[in-house]
Design brief:
This protein has 6 helices and 5 strands. The protein has 157 residues and is α/β, with parallel strands linked by helices. It has one domain: Sugar-phosphate isomerase, RpiB/LacA/LacB (Ribose 5-phosphate Isomerase B, Chain: A). The longest helix has 17 residues. The model has no long low-confidence stretch (mean pLDDT 95).
C-alpha cells in the first residue's frame, strides 16, 4: 500500500492525532501534512490543499479531518484531479472508492464547538480501512463518469 497523506485543522486535530498511533499499529505508512500543533486560528483550506497536492503528485490517497468534514471536502475538490468524499457510513465509503475512485476521505472531527457531532474513533478506523482496502471497479460506466468529471475540471477549472 502506498503512503497516505493526513491533514486536519484545529477542529480535526485531536482525531488526526489519535489516528496516527493506530495507523502505525496497522503498518499503514502516512505523512502528516499538518497541522502539526493545535492552533485554533488555523484554516482548513491550507491543509486540504497540502494533502490534495501530495495525493495528486504521488498518485496516492489522503485523509482530511475538520469540524464537519464538509469544509475540507469542498476545499480539496477545488484541486484538479481530486475526488474527495464525505461518506457517512461504510457502504458510502466503499462506493466512493469502487464507483467514483475517490482519492481523499474526509471525516468529521467535531472540534471544540460540536464535539458531540464527531465521528467515533471506532467508526473512523472502520471507514479508513474500508477506504484503503477498496479499489476502483474500473467499470465502463464509472470510467465514463470520471472522464466527464475531468472534462468539467478542464472546462471550469
Amino acid at each position: 500500500m502506498k503512503k497516505i497523506y493526513l491533514g486536519a485543522d484545529h477542529a480535526g486535530f485531536n482525531l488526526k492525532e489519535k489516528l496516527k498511533p493506530w495507523l502505525d499499529s496497522e503498518n499503514i505508512s502516512y505523512e502528516d501534512c499538518g497541522n502539526l500543533k493545535l492552533d485554533r486560528n488555523d484554516d482548513y483550506p491550507d491543509f486540504a490543499e497540502r494533502v490534495a497536492l501530495k495525493v495528486i503528485k504521488n498518485n496516492s490517497l489522503g485523509l482530511l479531518v475538520c469540524g464537519s468534514a464538509v469544509g475540507v471536502c469542498i476545499a480539496a475538490n477545488k484541486i484538479r484531479g481530486i475526488r474527495a468524499a464525505n461518506p457517512h457510513d461504510l457502504g458510502q465509503v466503499k462506493r466512493s472508492r469502487e464507483d467514483e475512485d475517490a482519492n481523499i476521505l474526509c471525516l468529521n472531527g467535531g472540534g471544540t464547538l460540536q464535539p458531540q457531532s464527531a465521528i467515533s474513533f471506532s467508526k473512523a478506523k472502520k471507514m479508513i480501512l474500508t477506504f484503503l482496502n477498496t479499489v476502483f471497479s474500473g467499470a465502463t460506466r464509472h470510467q465514463r463518469r470520471i472522464k466527464k468529471i475531468r472534462l468539467l475540471e478542464k472546462k471550469y477549472g
